[in-house]
Amino acid sequence: MQKASVKDKVTKLLGVNSLDARLSLVFIGIAFIAFLLGGILGLLQGLNRAGLLELPAWLNYYQVLTAHGVLLVLVFSTTFTIGYFYAALSHTLGGLLPKVRKMGWVALGLMVIGVVFVATTIIRGNASVMYTFYPPMQASPWFYVGLVFLVIGIWVTAFGAFINVAHWRKNHRGEHLPLLAYFATGVFVLLFFGSFGVTAEVLYILPWAFGWTDTINVILTRTLFWSFGHTLVNIWYLTAVSTWYIAIPKLIGGKLFSDSLARLVVILLVILNITGGFHHQIIDPGITPQIKFMHVFMSLAIGFPSMMTAFAMFAVFERAGRKKGAKGLLGWFKVLPWGDVRFLAPMIAMISFIPAGAGGIAQTNFQLNQVVHNTMYIVGHFHLTLGVSVVMSFCGAVYWLVPHLTKRVLTPAMNKIGVAQTIIWTLGMTLMSGAMHWVGLQGSPRRTSYTTYGDNATALGWDPYLFLLAIGGTLLIIGCILMFYIVFNLMFLAPKGETEFPIAEPEEDALPTPKWTERWTMIIVLMLAVVAMAYVIPLVDMIFNAPPGSPPFRTW
C-alpha cells in the first residue's frame, strides 16, 4: 500500500511517464493522419455529390465514401479514444503497468495490420461497401479479415485497461477509482462487450465472402452490425463527455459539479447503450413492431444521462462565472474564457449536441424515421454528432493533452490558430450539415453520387443546397489541414515547458460518492441482462425463422 502511494506521488511530481506518453502519442498521431486523409476524401465526396467534380474512372464515389467512413468513423475515433484514455489511466493510476504498455503496442500493431488489409481492398476497388458493410453487398474477404484484426486490437487494449484498473483497485482497497479512470473503464467495457455483435457478424460473413456458402441472412447481419454501430457512436460521445466533466471545470476556474452524478451518467450509458441499435432498423422488415417499440424506448432512455450532463455542465459554468463576479441571470456567460481554444472548442461541441441530440430523438419516432431514414438528413445528423460534438471535444482535449505528453506548451500564437480553426470548422459544418438536413427533408437520398434523375424538377431543386454542402466541405478541409498542423506543432515544434493535465476537483461541500458505484460486476451483469432482454428473442427468431438467404451482390 505504501509503495503504491509513493509511486503515485512520484508520477504526479514528474507529470508524465515518458514510455506511456510515447504510446498515447503514437495512437493520437495515427488518429490525426486518418483525420486528414478522411477529410480530403470527404471533400472529394462532397464536391462530387454537389455535381461540381467528376471523379476519374479509377476512383468512384462509393470507393471514396467507404474510405472516408472507415478512416473517420473507425480509425480516427477509435485510435484517439485509446490514446486519450491510456494517457488518462497513466496519469490517474500512477502509470501503466509494463505488461499493459506492451499490450498497447501489440494492439496497435494488430490494428495497423487490419487497416492495411481494409485500405488495400478499398484502394483496389474490391470493398466499396461503406463502413456499415451491409450484406448482400459483398466485399473482398480480405476486407473482413482486416476488420477481424481491428476488433482483436480493440479487445487487447480493453483487457490492458482492465488489468491496470484491477491492479490499482487491489492496492487501493476501499477507495473510489479516480473519475477519469472510471470513464475509461466504462468506455472499454462498451468497446469490449459492444463489439461482440459485429464480431459475430464478420465471422458469419467470412465463409460467404470466401465463397464457401452461397447465401446469407441479411436481416441478421444488419442487426448484429447495429448492436455495435449504435454503441460505437455513444463510445465517442462518452469519451467526449469525459473531457467535459474532467477538464473544462478546471480550465475555467470552476469545480466538478457532482462526482456521483458523473459516475451515474457512466453507469446509465453502459447499461442502456448496446440495446439502442434497433432504432437504426425501424423501417427494416422482419422485425416485429413490438420489438421495435421496445428498442425505441431503450434508445430514448439514453437521453436521460445526456440531460443530466447538460444540467451539470451549465451549473459548472454559472458557478464559475459567479465566482468571477458575474451578475444577473446570464452574466456568467460573458465571463467564460471564450478566447481560450481549450474551452471554446468543447463548448461549441456541447452547444452543437443540443440540436444533434434533438435530431436523434426525432429519428427514433416511427413516423418521422420513415420520412428521413434513407435521405441526406441522416448524414447531416451524423456529421453534427460526430463532426462537431465529438470532433470538437477531441480537438479541445488535444490542446492540453498533447503538450502535457510532449512536455511542451500551447503558445498564444497557436491558441489563435486554434480559435481560427474552431471557427472555420464550426462554420463549415454548420453549412454542410444544415444543407444535408434541409435537402434530406426535400427527399434527396443518401449513399448516392450526384444525379439529376433525367433532369427531374425535384432533383434539380436540390442543387442549391448541395452547393452549400460543397462550400461547407471546402471550409472543413481548411479546418482539417489547420488541425493537423496544430497537432504536429504541439508534438514536435512548440516550446518546451510543463502543461498541466487538468483534473477538476469536487466542490468543498460535495456529498460522498456512494460505494455501490464501484461494483462493476453488478453494472456489467445489469448491462448483459438488458442486452439479453433486447436481443435474445429477435435474434432467435431471425435465425430459426430466417427469410430466404441472399446471394452476393457487387453494385459498383
Automatic annotation (TrEMBL):
<feature type="transmembrane region" description="Helical">
    <location>
        <begin position="143"/>
        <end position="167"/>
    </location>
</feature>
<keyword id="KW-0813">Transport</keyword>
<feature type="transmembrane region" description="Helical">
    <location>
        <begin position="382"/>
        <end position="402"/>
    </location>
</feature>
<feature type="transmembrane region" description="Helical">
    <location>
        <begin position="523"/>
        <end position="544"/>
    </location>
</feature>
<feature type="transmembrane region" description="Helical">
    <location>
        <begin position="343"/>
        <end position="362"/>
    </location>
</feature>
<keyword id="KW-0472">Membrane</keyword>
<dbReference type="GO" id="GO:0020037">
    <property type="term" value="F:heme binding"/>
</dbReference>
<keyword id="KW-0249">Electron transport</keyword>
<dbReference type="GO" id="GO:0016020">
    <property type="term" value="C:membrane"/>
</dbReference>
<feature type="transmembrane region" description="Helical">
    <location>
        <begin position="423"/>
        <end position="441"/>
    </location>
</feature>
<feature type="transmembrane region" description="Helical">
    <location>
        <begin position="21"/>
        <end position="44"/>
    </location>
</feature>
<keyword id="KW-1133">Transmembrane helix</keyword>
<feature type="transmembrane region" description="Helical">
    <location>
        <begin position="225"/>
        <end position="248"/>
    </location>
</feature>
<feature type="domain" description="Cytochrome oxidase subunit I profile">
    <location>
        <begin position="22"/>
        <end position="488"/>
    </location>
</feature>
<dbReference type="GO" id="GO:0009060">
    <property type="term" value="P:aerobic respiration"/>
</dbReference>
<feature type="transmembrane region" description="Helical">
    <location>
        <begin position="260"/>
        <end position="282"/>
    </location>
</feature>
<feature type="transmembrane region" description="Helical">
    <location>
        <begin position="64"/>
        <end position="85"/>
    </location>
</feature>
<keyword id="KW-0679">Respiratory chain</keyword>
<protein>
    <submittedName>
        <fullName>Cytochrome C</fullName>
    </submittedName>
</protein>
<dbReference type="Pfam" id="PF00115">
    <property type="entry name" value="COX1"/>
</dbReference>
<dbReference type="InterPro" id="IPR036927">
    <property type="entry name" value="Cyt_c_oxase-like_su1_sf"/>
</dbReference>
<dbReference type="InterPro" id="IPR000883">
    <property type="entry name" value="Cyt_C_Oxase_1"/>
</dbReference>
<feature type="transmembrane region" description="Helical">
    <location>
        <begin position="294"/>
        <end position="317"/>
    </location>
</feature>
<dbReference type="GO" id="GO:0004129">
    <property type="term" value="F:cytochrome-c oxidase activity"/>
</dbReference>
<dbReference type="InterPro" id="IPR023616">
    <property type="entry name" value="Cyt_c_oxase-like_su1_dom"/>
</dbReference>
<feature type="transmembrane region" description="Helical">
    <location>
        <begin position="465"/>
        <end position="488"/>
    </location>
</feature>
<feature type="transmembrane region" description="Helical">
    <location>
        <begin position="105"/>
        <end position="123"/>
    </location>
</feature>
<keyword id="KW-0812">Transmembrane</keyword>
<feature type="transmembrane region" description="Helical">
    <location>
        <begin position="179"/>
        <end position="205"/>
    </location>
</feature>
